[in-house]
Every structure is written in C-alpha cells, then in structure tokens.
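Query form — protein DNA-binding protein

QUESTION: What is the three-dimensional structure of this chain?
INPUT:
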Amino acid sequence: MPPEALAQRPRFLKTPDAAIHLGLSPRTLEKHRCYGTGPIFRRLGGRVVYAIDDLEAWAAIGTRRSTSDTGSGTVYPARRRPAEA
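ANSWER: The structure tokens for DNA-binding protein are given below.
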C-alpha cells in the first residue's frame, strides 16, 4: 500500500463498519459484545468503536487449514456460552 493510503485508513470503526469488515451483520456484532464472545471494543464517549487490529486478531483466532484442524482457539457463536463443568 502506498503511504498515502495508510495515512487515510481509519484506525477505529463504528459497529456497522466493523461488521462489514468482518462480514457479519451489525446485530451479530452487538450480540457478541453483550455475551463477551466478540472482539475487543472501546467506548469513546457514548460510541462503541473497534480497532481494526483487534477485529483482525479476533478473526484470526478461527483460522484453520482444514476441517480436521483444531486450531489454536475458538470463535464462539453470538450467544451465551454454556457453563463449563
């Protein structure tokens, strides 16, 4: 990327833009936020924003090479996680 493009790239995204970046609906991202299963977010004043690096790090947790690859982590669905026994 040319240096000019990097300078204009936003550092934080609001929920609708973050959802587009991840390929999710804004409502799904809101549910992830409520259940604590989503990417790290920040509250700036009354706004919720996501750092692009945090979105990409969260998505990278689900990286797999094949269906049998257990990977290094799990991206949970946007719902309450069952209590672990």
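ADDITIONAL NOTE: The two ends are 48 Å apart (CA to CA).
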